[in-house]
Amino acid sequence: MSLLSLIIGIYSLYILIKIYLSIMQIGYINVEKRREPMLMSQGRYYVAGNYAIAKERISILESFVEYLLFLWWVVTGFSWLQGVVGNTDSVTKSVIFLFGFLGVNWLITFPFEIYSRFKIDESFGFNKMTPKMFIVDTVKSMAIFIIIGGIVLALLSFVISKYQSWWLGGFLILFAVALLANVIYPTIIAPMFNKFTPLSEGELRSDIEKIMQEAGLRSDGIFVMDASKRDSRLNAYFGGLGRSKRVVLFDTLLQKLNNRELIAVLGHELGHYKHGDIWKNIAMMGGFLFVAFYIFGHLPQKLYMQMGVVPTAGVTLATIFLLLPVLSFIYTPIMSMLSRHNEYEADRYGSDIGGKSYLISALLKLVTENKAFPKSDPIYSRFYHTHPPILERLDALGFDPKSIDMDSQLPKDGIFEFLDRDKME
Length: 425
What we know:
Elements: H1 3-32, H2 42-85, H3 91-123, H4 131-162, H5 166-189, E1 196-198, H6 203-215, E2 222-225, E3 236-239, E4 246-250, H7 251-256, H8 259-274, H9 277-296, H10 301-306, H11 313-354, H12 356-369, H13 378-384, H14 390-396, E5 404-405, E6 410-411, H15 415-418, H16 421-424
Parallel strand pairs: 2-4
Antiparallel strand pairs: 1-2, 3-4, 5-6
């Protein structure tokens, strides 16, 4: 068996497992959505199930297309593109080759993004973007990638073409870029797409500043993002590193949660900072990149011969990008397991800061508003989910989902008794 055949076999197995997991998830939710609802009314429960199924179905189709693209690239595509660009190992031609490779992939997969947003998300009431806004965002994203991505690809191509141990240099470059992205995204990139307004003075701002001070977090500020012009989902996050750290509240979140619930949610996010989860994630990402560049940096030259190409810097990088999803797929359940552990710890911190009852109340609203189906196939969940299933999170917080009135989506005993911290804790 040739090396190329072996790699095709490994990639085929990866796609089959990926599709199988999605099929298991679809089958599981199809059964569960017809059973007694959890955390929401029967109608909302059924709709949430349908949304999850719709997302998995498009994921399966994307996996088929991804597989066909992979086969085309390794059998014909790389040799065709190198014939167009030329096989001279120069930085310029390598960058052109890579832009060609990434451009073809983008053109083939871009329709899925359009369908997901304007068909699936819109039919379930999430999408608020107009076609014009979508086009403007796409053009901005492309411009940013061409400028920043072009520089990064040129640096990587230079290192590959000049140094024998290029895999180590390539890892260091990408790791540095990832760190830099965390620094500049909140203050430079994100404002190109959304408006960030400082949270007005008042009780909420004072409470947020207080819990940040207690946790030892210094930030660039507390901002409200106009997320509602693109999407109706609720969210909040702490973004950035160093002096660029900032608290970001989606305006949709402010509309749906009261101040006490917001403090509990931010307490959860602050828990990630307090426990060093950001740096843990960066370390995990660094470990993944190191392993990836080491493995793919030692691919035998005969692989490139079997693909009918000269192993220029551009072809080498494109091969890495093509095979990276397989390694990422293997790495995913490990990352997911560690992330779920961190989420439980952050929930505990958030409940201590904002009150267990208010964190539970906020989680219930988030599940309902974001149409998040509360159940999942156990294997699928353990593989993919970076957050524990909501029923497990509520159980860890000591809350019984059966205490909710499914019609009103409030606890059966009434909201005031529900928010009695002595009873909850």
